[in-house]
Amino acid sequence: MRDNDWTRILGWPGYRVWQSEIDEPGKRLKLWVRRKRGNLVLICSGCGKRVREIAEVYEREVRDLPCFEYRTTVVIELYRVKCPDCGLKTERVAQLPSKAPFSKRFEEAVGEACESASARQVARRFALPQSTVRAIDLRYLERWNAQRKRPALRHMGVDEIFLGKKTKFLTVVSNLESGEPLWFGRDRKKETLDEFFQTELSKRQRGQITAACVDMWAPYSISLQQWAPKAAIVYDKFHIMQHANAAIEEVRRAEFFRKGGAMRGLVKGKRWLLLSRWVHLSADKRQQLNELFALNRRVMKAYLLKESLDRLWTYTYEGAMLRYLQNWIRQLRWQRLRPFEKLANTLIDHLDGILNYCRVKVRFGVVEAINGNIKTLLRRGRGYKNLRYLLLKAQRMAVTKTEFVAFQKAA
Ligand SMILES: [Zn+2]
After folding, report:
1. Burial per residue of 354-384, b for 16 or more beta-carbon CB atoms within 10 angstroms, e otherwise
2. How far, in Å, from the CA of 93 to the mean position of ligand 1?
3. Residue 105 Cα, ligand 1 centroid: separation in angstroms?
4. pLDDT tops 70 at residue 95
5. pLDDT: which is higher, 385 or 205
6. Ligand 1 center to residue 102 CA distance, Å?
7. Which end of the chain, N or C, is more open, meaning fewer C-beta atoms within 10 Å of its C-beta?
8. Which has the closest alpha carbon to 6: 72, 17, 30?
């Protein structure tokens, strides 16, 4: 094949192939390229300005997309330029986005593959180490992030994710309108959220926030009142139902320890069932729960209380919502279910923010979806010691709407 044909097949704008080498047993193809005659505009990689003076010529070898069965390497002739502002610099070339030995379109292929498969799988497919795949993916996401427009933050969500015994909590701030996470912070203190307001938003941007969906967790509310006083605080269903689930779990455990013998065996392993909504259970699972309820009235009562609390958000009129909640709390009398009494007290203390659901229209379920996405990523990846990478990954997931897959599975 003539070099001219290789130039057309390679398709690097402004570059021509002047030498090629085929290693048939090794299934490798190597192409040497240099600038076409008319392509002489040199750009400084430091400042992005045009430079005329060339200091030296050198070669770089990068891996490009494969050509049929052949792994392809391109050896590119490059210039080091003398920039009046930056001094000695390498020239900027569109096909070489970083110092790593890969072409831009090769990195894009790896990055796209990482959107639907784990780093381990992609590494096997491209015959690269996993750490290299993650580094390529991170650069791919950084480039995507740098050129996209970010919507204004008016409705914010604040959530916490438990990462594990060592790293503990991660605070997640999200944009409820665009449905994407914006920022991660270690821990879940007031100072954690303070840092978001201080480092990520200007005073004007903080003033634009009109609503915030948060958990009933005082440090977050205090930080919000300080930095975004105009934002109405909304305690959303997702978080409140998490507390209800914690209460039911406490009742189940207490019953498990209180009663011995047969009861122990029956309550054991029913955690997941008790946390599931009745409507989502199959006939078989409902039967299992009914058997449990027949033997333990307290667990049954706790389950019914959780189920009925869920209906609180079917009300959009404040008065009706308040009445329903009051009736719910009245049902607790004489039940001696301490975990639910504690929950009721918490709800009374946070009444205003609960009723804000009727006053401020925010997208519910977003915090839950983002939370689910991050957990899916963490389960699949393991390589997320780098929080920046995890954030970009979750943002990309939200924008490409991969979220709903994860969300529906969790429900
Ligand atoms: Zn420069």
Report:
1. bbbbbebebbbebbbbbbbbbebbbeebebb
2. 14
3. 25
4. yes
5. 205
6. 23
7. N
8. 17
